């Protein structure tokens, strides 16, 4: 019987059988993994298997094709954040996105670190502006990891690397102010913080969410996976109300 013990982040939970549950966890070295948790909906385990929680996970399976049995031990709870509307919406979205977008068993250490960073930022930041930029960057990284990365190095129209302020929805490539002349209304704004680093103001953060949201919906969250977009819409709507 193969056994894997790893730190992990709980991303999703689905009822299975009378008392059990199937959990999907993000691990640092093995990517997204699923396992059956006996008694996963019990009073003892419900607070452990909340999205965003950090756990020590032990997967046991006789074959690679078999759904592993899973036991979990809580390392760090983010349950208090789920009582706050904005942090709860952010955790719900970023964990749901990870659970449905990634293939199982494909190592993605950069995504694990970025997910842990977003959740840590939500926990540590006094206001949403402190973690919203990290969320946009996480979505951008996830697109790249799945093969749908944006080309933000040079202008698709002129070949230059200066004054890049738009992205083409067709090519997913950056466009400079000069290259966009006359076509601005057909392009997506490119916030400066995605090129220069650092933080952003609320208009640029909402532009960033609009940018990544467009490509996530077009390339990743299709078919049955589109159902999770509702949680993103709730989050963006709440952020927009904060700005207003």
Derived from helix and strand composition plus strand pairing, the structural class reads alpha+beta
Succession of helices and strands: EEEEEHHHEEEHHH
Main sheet? 5 strands, mixed, barrel
Helix content: 25-40%
What are the key terms here?
three-stranded antiparallel sheet, single chain, elongated, 244 residues
Written account of the structure:
36% of the residues lie in helices and 23% in strands. By secondary structure, the protein is of the alpha+beta class. The strands form two sheets. Strands 1-2-3-5-4 form a five-stranded mixed beta barrel. Strands 7-6-8 form a three-stranded antiparallel sheet, covered by helices on one side. Helix 1 (85-101) runs parallel beside helix 3 (129-145), helix 1 packs antiparallel against helix 6 (229-243) and helix 2 runs antiparallel to helix 3. The longest helix has 19 residues, at 202-220. 37% of the residues are buried.
What is the topology?
Layout: E1 2-16, E2 20-27, E3 31-37, E4 54-61, E5 68-76, H1 85-101, H2 109-124, H3 129-145, E6 164-167, E7 174-176, E8 188-189, H4 193-196, H5 202-220, H6 229-243
Parallel strand pairs: 3-5
Antiparallel strand pairs: 1-2, 1-4, 2-3, 4-5, 6-7, 6-8
Helix pairs in contact: 1-2, 1-3, 1-6, 2-3, 3-5, 5-6
Short recap of the structure:
The chain contains 6 helices and 8 strands; from the N terminus they run βββββαααβββααα.
């Amino acid at each position: 019987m193969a056994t894997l013990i790893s730190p992990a982040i709980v991303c999703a939970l689905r009822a299975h059988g009378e008392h059990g549950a199937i959990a999907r966890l993000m691990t640092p070295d093995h990517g997204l993994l699923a396992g059956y948790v006996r008694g996963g909906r019990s009073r003892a385990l419900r607070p452990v298997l909340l999205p965003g929680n950090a756990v020590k996970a032990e997967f046991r399976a006789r074959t690679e094709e078999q759904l592993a049995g899973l036991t979990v031990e809580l390392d760090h709870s983010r349950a208090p954040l789920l009582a706050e509307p904005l942090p709860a919406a952010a955790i719900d979205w970023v964990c749901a996105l990870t659970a449905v977008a990634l293939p199982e068993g494909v190592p993605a250490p950069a995504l694990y670190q970025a997910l842990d960073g977003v959740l840590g930022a939500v926990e540590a930041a006094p206001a949403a502006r402190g973690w919203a930029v990290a969320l946009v960057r996480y979505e951008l990284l996830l697109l790249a990891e799945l093969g749908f990365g944006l080309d933000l190095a040079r202008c698709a129209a002129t070949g230059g690397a200066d004054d890049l302020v738009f992205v083409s929805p067709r090519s997913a490539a950056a466009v400079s102010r000069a290259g966009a002349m006359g076509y601005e209304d057909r392009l997506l704004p490119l916030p400066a913080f995605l090129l220069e680093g650092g933080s952003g103001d609320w208009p640029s953060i909402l532009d960033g969410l609009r940018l990544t949201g467009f490509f996530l919906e077009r390339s990743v969250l299709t078919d049955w996976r589109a159902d999770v977009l509702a949680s993103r819409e709730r989050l963006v709507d709440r952020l927009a109300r904060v700005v207003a």
